[in-house]
């Protein structure tokens, strides 16, 4: 009978170990890298070894050797940003929790000794939880769902960093382009102010015209100073997101924003695509699945919360006049913890309410995502139309106005004031055109984030929760 029990224990142990999960070779990064490559066309890598670091640095140096594009800036951020690497470490921690949950709980061994009345009694106990063994498959399923959710959280963190880096890139390039435009405007304003002063010396320009020319020069200079400050701050924001420091700070940015695309996608099936592709919604679904499995586990063990089996061996050594005698005794003990006061109802009720809360939050998130993608597309489409107007209509008209104003001034048909007014309006139109194009590219980033995840609104919602 003892052998039968021993074989039964060995059989259960073998079955439990066969169901154990094992660590992946890359800390659970395979689905993350696959999703990032599919949606962004970029490489996501977890930097663990010195070889990983060398490989990443080689890629970064190759990208920094040329003027940055939005894509190359994102790729550098995915390889160098330490905050993202911390998110990948969190994924590795989740995998460790999953592997641990798939293992049976270790038994406890105790030994005790009693001495008295010429007797020495030694008791040995080996205690293991039968309930934990029976619930092992369910606990493993819960941990597996939570690990999958952690994988999508890592994907969402990657998408969020990519979106933030693109926004910072377009802001930095637009700021640089504005500085170049205002520097050109400042040179023209300075030349106009000097010319007006010389004309004033000959009596060809009044003091009012001289003051207006000097004020125009001062105003453009102030705008240029502010633009330089903004360009420096925007560049540092991009630097920070890319995780660069030291000699890497000398990266090159292009002088102007990329050209507008010829057309933008239509609004068909945007909501359905977003609901299918948004990783934050996938995280919520997997968390709900894990909660559902956990609720089933709570119901299954509501009447017995602890079931321990103890194997005992007792040795008594008695010393008397006839010498020393030894007696061995064996047995077992089963310990049950039964919730007789609430019959497990509080745990089940708490789990049910928590589950329904998650169901409602998931439904709310799906509704919000549909609204987010509609709003993002409205901004995307509108900013494209505005930028198109500046590129195709307003700036060409401004160029014509500038040419005609200069001709009329040269022919002494108009005065300096009209020429300065035209120059000021031209600068304002060109600044607005650059800002409109920047706003379009920022809206394009927000639109993509609304479709696949990593949007600022989703991140803010998670922070509130």
Secondary structure: elements and pairs:
Elements: H1 2-18, H2 30-40, H3 50-64, H4 70-80, H5 82-101, E1 108-116, E2 119-129, H6 130-134, H7 136-202, H8 207-242, H9 270-277, H10 279-300, E3 306-320, E4 323-337, H11 345-410, H12 416-452, H13 456-464
Antiparallel strand pairs: 1-2, 2-3, 3-4
Helix pairs in contact: 2-7, 3-4, 4-7, 5-7, 7-8, 7-10, 7-12, 8-12, 9-11, 10-11, 11-12
Overall description:
InterPro entries: MdtP/NodT-like. This is Copper resistance protein. GO terms for molecular function: efflux transmembrane transporter activity. It is a single chain. With about 475 residues, this protein is of the alpha+beta class. The chain has one domain: Outer membrane efflux proteins (OEP). The protein has 13 helices and four strands. Strands 1-2-3-4 form a four-stranded antiparallel sheet. β3 (about 305-320) and β4 form a beta hairpin. α7 (about 135-200) runs antiparallel to α10 (about 280-300), α9 crosses α11 and α11 packs antiparallel against α12 (about 415-450). The protein is elongated, with a radius of gyration of 36 Å. Residues about 1-20, about 305-310 and about 460-465 have low confidence and may be disordered.
């Amino acid at each position: 009978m003892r052998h039968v029990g021993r074989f039964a224990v060995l059989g259960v142990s073998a079955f439990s170990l066969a169901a154990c999960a094992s660590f992946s070779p890359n800390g659970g990064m395979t689905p993350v890298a696959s999703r990032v490559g599919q949606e962004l066309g970029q490489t996501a890598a977890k930097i663990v070894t010195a070889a990983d670091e060398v490989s990443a640095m080689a890629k970064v140096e190759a990208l920094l050797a040329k003027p940055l594009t939005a894509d190359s800036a994102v790729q550098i951020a995915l390889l160098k940003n330490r905050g993202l690497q911390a998110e990948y470490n969190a994924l590795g921690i989740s995998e460790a929790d999953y592997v641990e949950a798939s293992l049976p709980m270790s038994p406890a061994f105790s030994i005790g000794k009693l001495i008295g009345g010429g007797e020495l009694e030694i008791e040995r106990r080996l205690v293991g939880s039968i309930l934990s063994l029976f619930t092992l498959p369910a606990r493993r399923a819960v941990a597996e769902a939570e690990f999958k959710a952690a994988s999508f959280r890592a994907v969402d963190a990657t998408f969020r960093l990519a979106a933030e880096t693109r926004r910072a890139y377009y802001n930095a390039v637009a700021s640089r382009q504005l500085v170049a435009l205002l520097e050109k405007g400042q040179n023209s304003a300075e030349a106009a102010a000097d010319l007006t002063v010389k004309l004033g010396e000959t009596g060809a320009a009044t003091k009012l015209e001289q003051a207006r020319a000097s004020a125009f020069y001062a105003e453009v200079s102030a705008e240029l100073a502010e633009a330089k400050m903004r360009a420096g701050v925007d560049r540092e924001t991009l630097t920070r997101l890319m995780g660069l420091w030291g000699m890497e700070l000398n990266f090159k940015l292009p002088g102007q924003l990329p050209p507008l695309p010829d057309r933008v996608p239509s609004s068909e099936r945007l909501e359905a695509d977003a609901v299918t592709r948004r990783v934050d919604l996938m995280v919520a679904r997997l968390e709900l699945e894990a909660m559902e499995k956990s609720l089933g586990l709570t119901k299954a063990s509501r009447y017995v919360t602890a079931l321990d089996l103890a194997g005992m061996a007792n040795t008594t050594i008695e010393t008397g006049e006839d010498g020393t005698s030894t007696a061995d005794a064996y047995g077992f003990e089963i310990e049950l913890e039964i919730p007789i006061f609430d019959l497990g109802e509080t745990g089940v009720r708490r789990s049910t309410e928590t589950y329904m809360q998650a169901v409602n939050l998931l439904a709310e998130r799906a509704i919000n995502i549909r609204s987010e993608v509609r709003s993002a597309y409205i901004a995307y489409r509108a900013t494209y139309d505005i930028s198109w107007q500046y590129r195709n209509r307003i700036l060409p008209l401004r160029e014509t106005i500038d040419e005609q104003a200069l001709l009329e001034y040269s022919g002494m048909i108009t005065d300096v004031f009209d020429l300065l007014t035209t120059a000021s309006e031209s600068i304002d139109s060109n600044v607005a055109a650059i800002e409109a194009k920047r706003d379009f590219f920022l809206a394009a980033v927000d639109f993509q984030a609304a479709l696949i995840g990593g949007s600022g609104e989703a991140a803010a919602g998670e922070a509130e929760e």
